[in-house]
Specification:
Shape: elongated
Order of helices and strands: HHHHH
Structural class: mainly alpha
CATH architecture: Up-down Bundle
Length: about 130
């Protein structure tokens, strides 16, 4: 989601996570994964679509939830869960590509985004320690 789109969603309140680049990037990745899920649904692959949506939303959800923590240790725990969700998404994208359910171009784009998100989360965790 672009900065402009994020600002349009802004209801006037600000949560701590809204200022985090890793959260913004996770939302953008989630949107890409939702698009793939919609395509899977048109093929009647509802279970795959549901799983992809849940795992895609889990990245930004855990970053948001962790940002509400009162301790660095707890925040790091949620960031690690977000990173594991990114790995779960990467696995599904690789399997879907192998099965011919998504194109190599889409898989490559999403996998690059997930890899970058993981690096950013790891960097944030290291900065917190």
């Amino acid at each position: 989601m672009e900065q402009k789109e994020m600002d349009e969603v802004d209801s006037g309140t600000k949560f701590r996570f809204q200022e985090l680049d890793i959260w913004r990037r996770a939302v953008a990745l989630g949107n890409e994964l939702f698009d793939i899920a919609e395509d899977l649904e048109t093929r009647k692959l509802y279970r795959f679509a549901e799983q992809l949506r849940a795992a895609g939303l889990s990245i930004s959800n855990n970053i948001a939830e962790g940002s509400g923590s009162n301790s660095k240790k707890e925040l790091i725990q949620f960031l690690n869960i977000a990173k594991r969700s990114a790995f779960e998404n990467a696995n599904m994208i690789l399997v879907f590509k192998t099965r011919g359910l998504i194109s190599s171009d889409i898989a490559r784009k999403v996998l690059c985004g997930l890899e970058e998100e993981c690096k950013m989360i790891t960097g944030f965790i290291l900065a917190l320690k």
